[in-house]
Amino acid sequence: MWLPKLGILTAYVVLGVTVTLSADEKDCFCKIPLKGEVDDCSCKIESLDSFNNLKIFPRLHSLLNKDYFRFFKVNLKRPCPFWGDDGRCALRDCHVDKCSEDQLPPGYKESKQEENKYTKEAQEQLHTDCKEQKELGGIDKTISSEDRESFKSWSKYDDAQDNFCELDDDNSADMEYVDLTLNPERYTGYKGESAWRIWRTIYQENCFKPDTPVPGYGPAEARGAEGKALQSGLDLMRSLKGMCLEKRVFFRMISGLHTSINVHLSAKNYLPAANGYGKGTWGPNVEEFQKRFDPETTNGEGPQRLKNLYFTYLVELRALAKAAPYLEQEDFFTGDEKEDNETRNAVKDLLKIIKSFPDQFDESRLFQGNNKEAQQLKEEFRKLFRNISVIMDCVGCDKCKLWGKTQTQGMGTALKILFSGDTMGPDSTVDAQQKKNFQLRRSEIVSLFNAFGRLSTSIKEVDVFRQLIKEKDST
Ligand SMILES: *[C@@H]1O[C@H](CO)[C@@H](O)[C@H](O)[C@H]1NC(C)=O
Ligand SMILES: *[C@@H]1O[C@H](CO)[C@@H](O)[C@H](O)[C@H]1NC(C)=O
């Protein structure tokens, strides 16, 4: 009942669309980007906003600059198991001037086969895209020799811990440390068919499908347009009502991740230098944001997308709270005693705040009962999630892949925490006493905190956009 209402009110807030509101309401909306409850949670968006922006964000921001958290070990060279070469020339080895025809995206190729009209214009556009992607999507792999040296003692330390389970990649020679602070998640120029295919695959093949088919949901409609991927996913959302809670949760988490990534791309958008020379700058692009979240351009789905961001945030928040007793015992070893002490204290401080949040997501509502069906669903949930992290190997832009992997692994770690331990529910925890049954490895901890950091940043950025839109509309 309040959903349509929320849509209108949000329209006012997010877009400055004039609607008649009582003075009381207006006051309220000037302070918040969205209003109401986060679906499937008992939590209000208003309280989440101030909790995040004032308490969580500043702490996380400084914590994630610590050595322990800023170096993420990742394999960016794992081949994509689902389809061959991405086909896009603008990838890691893109040589802008040497796109051969078989390197062209399928969209171009098909049109050539069909009508033999692969135009010069398209080729030029592709070259421009290639150049942009190569410049913006690459990874800065700078690591000081001092840091490189200390990684050796890290791995010695980590190997000495008895690890409960293998992460598939951990021993691959292609694993390498990347400094996340040198590679901020921002607009990279990665778009079009290639980027769209990733989201299409995730939504179409790997999300739980709604019980009834959704009209108008298909590749033809969305082909080639990046924004349409989101649209396709959200078409699914309309029939979410028929899905059980677990499937909705899964879908919301994926949508929340997608929303978060899009908020970052809008907030750290590339603004080329005015005269066309020199370096461009990075900053918020209100039009980009509105294109993705404005109820008018999104068929009214924008506010729901934003709500899913809050939802995903709550799930990861709860995972951190649940694992707090475990994390409070963690060494956060980097070999620099002073730094490690500081990191431990900063983590404890953050966890204290996180634990104080009153409306935690209640994971015990999921997979209820011990029956076969619940177990099966849990297993399906796990498999699908794993599949989504594998799809990240197919992302054709290194920087996007880096952050895609960090965030899906962080989300996977959150789920692992939520469904570990003998009990589930708001008061349950996992702690170091259970170490035989439950363990987190360095990369899981690093990805969990960084993934949560991304969501926290997004919520803060949404607030900035709200201000900008208000300013824009009042001039
Ligand atoms: C780090 O903390 C430990 C105990 O908490 C303390 O004994 C040690 O002196 C601290 N080291 C530094 C360099 O601050
Ligand atoms: C994993 O994803 C691929 C590619 O979309 C798909 O073909 C496969 O069936 C998926 N597997 C599972 C278990 O969902």
From TrEMBL:
FAD binds at residues 186, 188, 199, 255, 258, 292. Residues 1-22 form the signal peptide. It is a peripheral membrane protein. Pfam families: ERO1. Disulfide bonds join 89-94, 130-165, 397-400. GO terms for molecular function: FAD binding; protein-disulfide reductase activity; thiol oxidase activity. Its cofactor is FAD. It comes from the Eukaryota. It is found in: Endoplasmic reticulum membrane. The active site is at 397 (nucleophile), 400. Keywords: Disulfide bond, Electron transport, Endoplasmic reticulum, FAD, Flavoprotein, Glycoprotein, Membrane, Oxidoreductase, Redox-active center, Signal, Transport. GO terms for cellular component: endoplasmic reticulum membrane. One of its GO terms (biological process) is protein folding in endoplasmic reticulum. Belongs to the EROs family. May function both as a monomer and a homodimer. This is ERO1-like protein beta isoform X1. It comes from Lingula anatina (Brachiopod). The lineage of its organism: Eukaryota, Metazoa, Spiralia, Lophotrochozoa, Brachiopoda.
